[in-house]
């Protein structure tokens, strides 16, 4: 079963999505969910109902023209998708095990590589209580790359299995895998996260010391890691008042066993001049800082007043949301 996600939708209305081809394969029991639907499956252990919810868009929730002018289309999409899920749930046989499977963003979910919660993003959001509804026994979600259960204290697990592979260096320390779900009877769903082998993402941080060959220090640091078939990123810190003398060609050769080198990035110290500027601006208000920033950008300098005004409005909205 494949559920269409946000990266699979075509840019133009009416075009096929990236997964439509899979639905044409002559394979029995293969399902591509590109619109809200219910699938009734008969397994060797009995029947199960699966409500599939793809990434909600204007088209999938039938956003009408007059509603398109709404000041908060994202909020409308969330509410409309919630109604759709509730309608499908109400039509299910409450005696048969049921799963809600969707590509959705739960407000309490946490993004990979940070502790930033999804509520601060721009996706259509869903509260856990809007998804963990009867007669669902389990809610299986995709979209957030980190494995997490967002309803640990509830009877209906809301679980992101997470991405099967690492996507960027923010995920380099996260385990990856899939969830094995068991529903022996109504209201008794359990799951086990099965960790799978993943390609290592290795970030090498090197603090260069004065008086020693910078290239040699880099090679010594690389030698401490097993980088064969890994995705590698190297960040090296240059001592203050010294030039960057690293021989990048030699460093790249030392990483030849890696599958890919994302970058070899020099980090230069903050100079005294920059520290002084930062210190002088630390007492400025956010509005003044924004004004200084935009006025120095040649391509938008003539729109500084408008940009500052819009930015301050967004900051005020965020403050109000955090206060609520």
Tell me what the structure shows.
With 324 residues, this protein is α/β, with parallel strands linked by helices. The chain folds into three domains: 2-195, Metallo-dependent phosphatases (Purple Acid Phosphatase, chain A, domain 2, 4-Layer Sandwich); 201-267, no CATH class; 284-323, no CATH class. It has helices at residues 73-90, 128-131, 214-222, 248-254, 272-281, 286-295, 304-323; strands spanning 2-3, 32-33, 37-43, 46-53, 98-103, 105-106, 125-126, 138-142, 148-149, 158-160, 177-182, 190-195, 201-207, 231-237, 260-267. The chain has a six-stranded mixed sheet, with helices on one face. Helix 6 runs antiparallel to helix 7 (304-323). The radius of gyration is 25 Å and the shape is globular. The model has no long low-confidence stretch (mean pLDDT 85).
């Amino acid at each position: 079963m494949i559920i269409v996600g946000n990266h699979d939708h075509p840019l133009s209305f009416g075009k096929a999505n990236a997964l439509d081809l899979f639905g044409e394969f002559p394979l029995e029991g293969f399902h591509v969910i590109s619109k809200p639907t219910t699938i009734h499956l008969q397994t060797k252990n009995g029947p199960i109902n699966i409500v599939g919810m793809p990434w909600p868009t204007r088209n999938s929730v039938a956003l009408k023209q007059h509603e398109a002018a709404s000041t908060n289309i994202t909020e409308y999409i969330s509410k409309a998708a919630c109604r759709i899920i509730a309608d499908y749930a109400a039509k299910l046989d409450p005696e048969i095990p049921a799963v809600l499977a969707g590509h959705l963003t739960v407000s309490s979910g946490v993004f990979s590589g940070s502790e930033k919660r999804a509520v601060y993003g721009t996706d259509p959001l869903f509260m856990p209580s809007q998804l963990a509804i009867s007669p669902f026994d389990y809610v299986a979600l995709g979209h957030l790359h980190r494995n997490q259960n967002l309803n640990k204290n509830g009877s209906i697990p809301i679980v992101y299995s997470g991405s099967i592979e690492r996507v960027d260096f923010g995920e380099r320390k996260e385990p990856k895998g899939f969830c094995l779900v068991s529903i022996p009877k109504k209201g008794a769903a359990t799951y086990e996260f099965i960790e799978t082998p993943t390609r290592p993402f290795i970030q090498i941080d090197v603090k260069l010391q004065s008086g020693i060959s910078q290239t040699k220090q880099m090679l010594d640091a690389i030698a401490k890691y097993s980088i064969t078939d890994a995705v590698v990123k190297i960040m090296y810190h240059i001592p203050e008042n010294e030039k960057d003398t690293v021989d990048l060609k030699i460093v790249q050769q030392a990483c030849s066993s890696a599958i890919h080198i994302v970058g070899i990035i020099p980090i230069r110290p903050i100079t005294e001049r920059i520290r002084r500027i930062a210190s002088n601006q630390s007492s400025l208000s956010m509005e003044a800082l924004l004004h200084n920033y935009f006025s120095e950008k040649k391509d938008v300098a003539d729109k500084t007043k408008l940009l500052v005004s819009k930015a301050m409005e967004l900051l005020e909205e965020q403050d109000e949301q955090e206060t609520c």
